[in-house]
Amino acid sequence: MDGNGRWAKKRLMPRALGHKRGVDTVRTIARAAREMGLEALTLYAFSSENWKRPADEISDLMSLLRAFIRTELDELVRNGTRLKIIGEWQALAPDIVDMIGDALARTAHNRQTTLTIALNYGSQQEIARAAARAAAKGAITVESIEAELDTADLPPLDLIIRTSGEVRLSNFLLWQAAYAEMWFTDVLWPDFTPEHLHDALGQFATRERRFGGR
Ligand code: FPP
Predict the structure, then answer these.
(1) Structural domain includes residue 211
(2) Of 9, 163, 171, 188, which alpha carbon lies 20 to 30 A from 43's?
């Protein structure tokens, strides 16, 4: 969800306002994805590397996360969305860990769609953790690692969308991206609309996926 900072800077606003508008987009896109019938949507909200940002920005992001869970949880429960968190979220502030635990429990039985939020997430760290768990149980194989990834109960990754003109994966779902399609746009995350999502899905539908075959 890149480009919140630049969106704010262009308007001579504080970065925090860019992130706040970013959360508005999260709300709109999560709703649109569900209405479009997507089985799963995963949003990269806070990376393991984002701790390098200034303390006040980290604190703004955590406050936005708290507010998001507080204001959206009832709707997620009602509309059939299962909330899932990937990453080392248990290391976040205790009150956030409690809120997340409650949100996971309240949406656990929902089956309409899964909204996954990556928090304190790094894909290399995830793969290392999964490999260690697989090794502790027996052989290290593609399947045994896959079964231990944070995403083990999600469908295979089909499409990665990255906003704001960045053309890299930045430690997001590296393993899962092996055969994912990618769609890059210059649109900044706060300006990303359901129409952009629709365009990305339209493009995706035209891609011929061979998974290494022919
Ligand atoms: C990247 O933009 C964005 C982030 C690091 C944070 C994304 C987080 C949110 C939208 C809010 C919290 C999420 C939820 C689900 C409530 P950037 O700051 O790197 O922008 P820039 O590249 O323009 O500087």
Answers:
(1) no
(2) 9
Number of domains in the chain: 1
Distance 98 CA to ligand 1 centre (A): 23
**Catalytic residue check, 2:** yes
Contacts for 135 with CB less than 8 Å, ≥ 6 apart: none
Whole-prediction pTM: 0.97
- Which CATH number does the domain housing residue 51 bear? 3.40.1180.10
118, β-bridge pairs: 44, 86
Residue 132 to residue 56: CA distance in whole angstroms: 34
Give per-residue pLDDT as tens, 54-97: 999 999 999 999 999 999 999 999 999 999 999 999 999 999 99
Q: Is 43 a pocket residue for ligand 1 (Cβ < 6 Å)? A: yes
Q: Is 2 in the pocket of ligand 1 (CB under 6 A)?
A: yes
Burial of 121 (0-12, 13-18, 19+ CB in 10 A): buried
Protein residue with least CA distance to atom 13, ligand 1 = 45
Question: Does the beta carbon of 118 lie inside 6 Å of ligand 1?
Answer: no
Decide if 195 is inside a domain.
yes
Does residue 57 fall inside a structural domain? yes
